Each structure stands twice: as C-alpha cells, then as structure tokens.
User: Which sequence fits this backbone?
C-alpha cells in the first residue's frame, strides 16, 4: 500500500531530522572542537536508532510502523536532550558522573592525563541562551510529535 502525502512527509522528517542533527553534532565536534559528554552520546544513540529505523521504513513493511518507531526514537532523543539541558542549567542533578573516552592501548596514565574532561553539567556552547542539548530537546521533541501526528492523519 502506498504512503499518503502526510505519511511521506512523516517519513522525510524521520529521515532528515536525525541525519541533520547528527551531522550538526559531528560538525560541532570535529569542526569546532566541542567534545561530547556522556549525555550527549545518549542523545546521539537515540538519533542513530531513529535514522536506522527510518531507513528501514523505506524498504520494509509495514512502513507506518517503522516511521512511527523512528518518530518515537526522535522523541526519546529530545527527552534525553531536555534532561541534559536541565542538568546543564542546574535544574536537577544528573544520573551519573560524566566519563572520559576509553583509554584504548598504550600508557593508561598518559591517556588519562591527555583525555579531555567534559562535564555534563556545563554548557559548552549556546545560542540565544539555549544550549545544544536544549536545541536538541526543542527540535527533536517538536519533530517527533509532528511525525506521530502526521501518521494519525487519514487523508490521502
């Protein structure tokens, strides 16, 4: 069964939003040196899942189910971003202490001394007083809800 116009729009959002947000995350990391903290990675994991599920919706039936699951994963990424923003702004305490990347091979002491310390409760960058986690909350939450609402439409 072919997708309706609203379902096609939902699918495009489910593909585009996580792809663009992940692209922005990697641009900020590798282009501008903003190293992600542990909670930043949690948000990325949800976007990776959303993108994979959205890609699956292009080839596997039932497409509406896959699009809806991708929308839910985007919404989860947004909720994690909202939680992270609250930690950054001191509204509540985070669940865990942020960790540094794995030490890998070589001298562990040197790896510890050279590893960047990125705290989850500090804003690295903001626009209009909103941190990256806050922007992720806004964009992902609105997009996830929009995808789910578009799937509820019955029009062709």
Assistant:
């Amino acid at each position: 069964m072919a997708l309706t116009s609203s379902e096609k729009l939902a699918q495009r959002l489910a593909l585009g939003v996580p792809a663009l947000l992940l692209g922005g995350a990697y641009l900020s990391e590798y282009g501008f040196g903003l190293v992600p903290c542990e909670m930043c990675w949690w948000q990325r994991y949800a976007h990776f899942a959303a993108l994979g599920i959205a890609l699956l919706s292009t080839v596997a039936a039932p497409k509406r189910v896959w699009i809806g699951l991708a929308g839910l994963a985007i919404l989860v990424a947004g909720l994690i971003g909202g939680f992270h923003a609250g930690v950054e702004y001191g509204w509540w305490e985070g669940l865990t202490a942020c960790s540094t990347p794995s030490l890998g091979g070589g001298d562990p002491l040197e790896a510890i001394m050279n590893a960047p310390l990125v705290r989850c409760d500090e804003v690295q960058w903001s626009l209009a007083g909103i941190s990256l986690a806050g922007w992720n909350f806004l964009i992902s939450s609105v997009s996830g809800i929009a995808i789910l609402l578009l799937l509820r439409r019955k029009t062709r």
Observations:
- Helices lie at 5-31, 38-56, 63-88, 108-114, 132-152.
- Strands lie at 126-127, 130-131.
- Residues 5-93+114-152 form one domain.
- The chain has five helices and two strands.
